[in-house]
Amino acid sequence: MVERRPWLNFMTHLVLIFGVVLTLFPVWMTFVASTHPGEVLAIKPLPIWFGDRFLENYSFLITEGLPGAGGVPVGKMMMNSLIMAVGITIGKITVSLLAAYAVVYFRFPMRMLFFWLIFITLMLPVEVRILPTFDVIAKLELLNSYTGLCLPLIASATATFLFRQFFMTIPEELIEAAKIDRAGPIRFFFEILIPMSRTNIAALFIVLFIYGWNQYLWPLLVTTEEDYYTIVMGVHRMLNTGESLPVWDQIMGTATLALLPPVLIILLMQKLFVKGLIETEK
Amino acid sequence: MSEVELKQIVKIFPGSTKALDEIDLKVKDRELMVILGPSGCGKSTLLRIVAGLEKATDGRVFIDGQDVTEQEPGTRDIAMVFQNYALYPHMTVFKNLAYGLKNRKINKSEINRRVKEVAETLQIEEYLDRKPSQLSGGQRQRVAMGRAIARNPKVFLFDEPLSNLDAKLRIQVRLEISRLQSKLGVTSLYVTHDQVEAMTLGHRLVLMNEGRIEQIGEPLQVYESPETLFVAGFIGSPPMNLVPGELNEKGEFNLGSTVKIKLDDFQIKSKKLTLGIRPEHLLIDGTGAVMLGEFIVENYERQGADNYLYGKINGLSHPLITRVPADTIHSVGSTINLSCEKNKLHFFCSDTGSRIENKKDT
User: Fold this and answer.
1) What is the pTM (predicted TM-score) of this model?
2) Among B49, B65, B140, B207, which has the highest number of CB atoms less than 10 A from its own CB?
3) ipTM
């Protein structure tokens, strides 16, 4: 339904602006708070305009880190998060592409059984199977390692399903043309299927990166050494200061920094992301 | 030299009847053979078996005298043009044309040379850097043909390549295919359900119905002496008038209550016959040797070049169509004395559908 009436335009803009304000206000408050000294934040009212501690706060966070939270610099934690998020994302996309390729294009015994086995894992997210998964990772001696952080989160039914659905929309004749052009299974996969899935891969990359970046429970369990702390964990640990007051300026600064990579990823890949969601290029 | 030969091809899809029933076919070198038939007659399956995209349940495929039955499509040295073109959407036109060559480990300068040459022949040089989505239907069709030509294969296979084009473009591309095929001299198999395409393009036609070959022959031969009732009804637009009837004791064919046609020239084997007459062979000026009685015009269509009259012969319930020149005007309800030349009558056995030969023909 497309209606063009002035008052309706006004109303829709009002709703949109309200939504934007509602979403951005906490982000604004967080960012503003991170530029003030800690004492200001301990008394009401909270400032709504920038303070003068921007440089000091952020350089301290990035290089040194809070002694109360293990003294890990935020830079290090961000790096850990980045490794985990990228690891999970690339791992998931690789595994899902391969699994979907096998399920859609190859006729092997019990094909559908395997497909449903993958599908069923949708019902078993990490939170449900956390104890056995932890047990496995512990026995493999992967605690406190990047592998341990990424591996259990890599298997993905959603991504496999998404690629399966996409592959099934590719016309049979294209595959036949490739066969006649003497493209074997591996060539077909790398030279035709993957380039054609480009937009889907990009859309999935964004979603999965944010999923990986925001992981909280799993890293909390498998990492005990500060060297492997992730940023989302880090924010939480900063709040557990025991007797002393939480240093809100630092916490807000960390939260702001933690926000940046997902935002950057979305900004950079936005075009492909939207394409992947709405457009079928055929 | 590259012939295609099919021997005793049988295809049975799991859980269904025979899609192809012992097909024998030989396509001569440099020949364009059109496989024609209604949808579901097995013509596409046959083509796909030649391509190697489908495995025959039984029978052998020979290309250039070599048994290729067990070979993969990529090694058969064939090229196929698909109905929806099947271009690689993420590659430029150049890469689309070059892909098959690249996979055959042909060196770069040779690929460049061949693609340029093909692009020139098909007049698609200016699109080489575009992607298929930026091309019109006709241009995509050219690229699809280009991809086939660039490989310089032994056999071209066309799978209804014109059915996604609009009517005007279809004629243009049809002529182009005909021109290219005779220029390149590549043995070709062309599947279509469009009889105009078949008549105009084919050196020879194969008519298929329900997984069997009904007739093989040159287009005019098929038109002028259809071997079976199916062919008679399928080829020609508007279709041949087919009137079922019976022979009387004297060996005459009863057409309606008054008209009797003597059949002494025909080699009759059964009593139930079907008479076939093409609409353009029904004469309205009474000059034919065989008088067919009074025809009452019930309806007429003007198509510009000629008119079609629909109606019935007195005493015959079966409707007939005749084709008359555009300048002859007949109103609904008027009567005409129809006649026909004797050698334009076709008789078929109603039970087996096979043609009854005129002694004079043989």
Assistant:
1) 0.80
2) B207
3) 0.83
